[in-house]
Amino acid sequence: MKKFILLLAVMILTHTAYAEEPKIIMMGEYVYTTDVIDITEAPPINRMSEVLDEVDANERKLEYLGEFVCTTYCPCRKCNGKWGAIDGYGNPLVLGTVAVDPSVVKLQTHLVIDGYDIEFVARDTGSGVNGKHVDIFMPVSHSEALKMDQGNKRKVWRVVQ
């Protein structure tokens, strides 16, 4: 239920618009939509102007990992190939999923990425994700994903539990 509320809040905050009525599906703790979401604006900016190894505004303890190249991917076949819209664990892709190089960021690590107001979880890998590179899943069309982060460098922090 928490994930469903988070997804709805993110949709409202990002001014999400639907061409049709969305079909939200809950599978265990995961929530995903069967429709492609058209985001008319980029996610809200949460700029962290300084490198912090302490506590953020949400009282999360953070460890600075450095600047990473950020790209975005969507649920389409071009982005996911023969595997389809599932993460590295076989679960449907959800907003908040990122693909990482597991030799740099361990899978299941919670991340904060400068410029985004959500906490991400490293649940996926990709053949094009190497080194300090984070590929951010967005439940949007392929053309919308290409308008988002495509090689921008952003500061990344690990959430220390």
Anisotropy-based shape: globular
CATH architecture: Beta Barrel
CATH class: Mainly Beta
Q: Report how far the terminal alpha carbons are from each other.
A: 21 Å
Instruction: Report the radius of gyration as a whole number of Å.
Output: 15 Å
Number of helices: 3
Neighbour order of strands in the largest sheet: 5-9-6-8-7-10
Q: Looking at CATH, which topology would you report?
A: Barwin-like endoglucanases
Largest sheet: 6 strands, mixed, barrel
Tell me the CATH superfamily: RlpA-like domain
- Which consecutive residue ranges, at least 5 long each, have pLDDT under 50? 3-51
Q: In percent, how much strand structure appears in the residues?
A: 25-35%
Number of strands: 10
Q: What is this structure, in a nutshell?
A:
The chain has 161 residues and is α+β, with helices and mostly antiparallel strands. It is built from three helices and ten strands, in the order αβββββαββββαβ.
Describe this structure in words.
The chain has 161 residues and is an alpha+beta fold. The protein has one domain: RlpA-like domain (Barwin-like endoglucanases, Beta Barrel), CATH 2.40.40. Helix content is 14%, strand content 34%. The protein is built from three helices and ten strands. Strands 5-9-6-8-7-10 form a six-stranded mixed β-barrel. A hairpin with a 5-residue loop joins strand 7 and strand 8. It is globular and about 40 Å long.
